[in-house]
Amino acid sequence: MTGTSPSDFAKRLDKTADDTEALLGRLLSDDILPDEIARPKRLMDAMRYSSLNGGKRLRPFLVVESAAVFGVPREAALLVGAALECIHCYSLIHDDLPAMDNSDLRRGRPTLHKQTDDATAILAGDGLLTIAFDIITRDEVHRDANVRLLLTRALARCAGIGGMVGGQILDLAGEGRFGGNEPIDVARIQQMKTGALLRYGCIAGAILGQALQKEYQALDDYGRALGEAFQIADDLLDVEGDAAALGKPAGADAALGKTTFVTQLGIDGAKQRVRDLLARADSAISIFGERAAVLQAAAHFVAERKN
Fold first, then answer.
1. Other C-beta atoms lying within 10 Å of the C-beta of residue 98
2. What is the largest CA-CA distance in the chain?
């Protein structure tokens, strides 16, 4: 692959972020849908507060670009990306709560429970979680109901007990929240808590494109490598970054006593691991040639990001 220039990549990332923002704005409007009774203003305002006007929209970007490899219509991929982003935003709301990471700042603004209250934050997260499955099952996503079923099942598994939610409780256990001295498997926690949704962004494109098994596997392998690289970069930023650039407090992992890739591998070891993962990601998608140049650039962007 010859690759994608940084400026071209940045434009594509920004374009998808803008398109996702506009789509989420429509999906989270006050307009009542069939079978809905009402959309309470406080709930909708809270859901919009935590999902609009922020973030790089990396997960929807991965859906759009992995789907583009197979020529999937952009509008369909954006809907799947919006559903995924709703799951991601709900997880951030709940992760920030006092019972979880107890964070005051997110994307440079007060976290939702600080802006409103704990109950509103919990319900806004619940609302984003459930609307994600409304979005991903819509006819506009794909004409084949079986494709929509596969997308929905995969999202539930990546977001649920065997994915993100399961990873969150393992992460809390690693902090000693529940007593005992269970061994901490940082790689497993990462694969579930952070990596699963990033991986979904990659395999969703393959599902939408009704890919061959070897093509699905290539994007699966790429997504796993990218997800781990993302988490290691995040761990490094928590040590080396600053709050202004991050939009949240630096040093939070150390304050909570978390075991991370950096605490296990050291800074130099963690950086070498990222380089190895980038090579693995590049190798996985090499079967697509130039069609995957943007995905190749995405892996490097994830590893080299500053916030």
1. 13
2. 55
Q: Identify the H or E element spanning 106.
A: strand 105-106
| Crossing angle of the two packed helices 261-284 and 213-240, in degrees rounded to 10 | 150
Q: How many angstroms separate the Cα of 198 from the Cα of each of 26, 40, 96?
A: 24, 31, 20
What residues contact 265, with CB distance under 8 A and at least 6 apart? 272, 273
Amino acid identity of residue 277, one-letter, is L
Quick one: which of 182, 224, 195, 217 has its CA closest to 288?
217
Q: Exposure of 96 by Cβ count < 10 A (0-12 exposed, 13-18 middle, 19+ buried)?
A: buried
Distance CA(191)–CA(166), nearest Å, equals 10
Nearest-CA neighbor of 47 among 94, 102, 112?
112
Model confidence pLDDT, tens digit, residues 234-260: 899 988 865 455 454 555 665 555 678
Q: Please state the rounded mean pLDDT for residues 254-269.
A: 78
- At residue 265, the pLDDT reads 87
- Identify the structural domains of the chain with CATH numbers, from first to last: 6-304 (1.10.600.10)
The pTM of the whole model exceeds 0.90? yes
Rounded distance, CA 32 to CA 15, Å?
Answer: 28
Query: 110 forms bridges with which residues in the sheet?
Result: 105
Burial 265-290 (b: 16+ CB within 10 A, else e): beeeebeebbeebbebbbebbeebee
Residues 142, 208: contact at Cβ < 8 Å? yes
Count of positions (residues) in the chain = 307
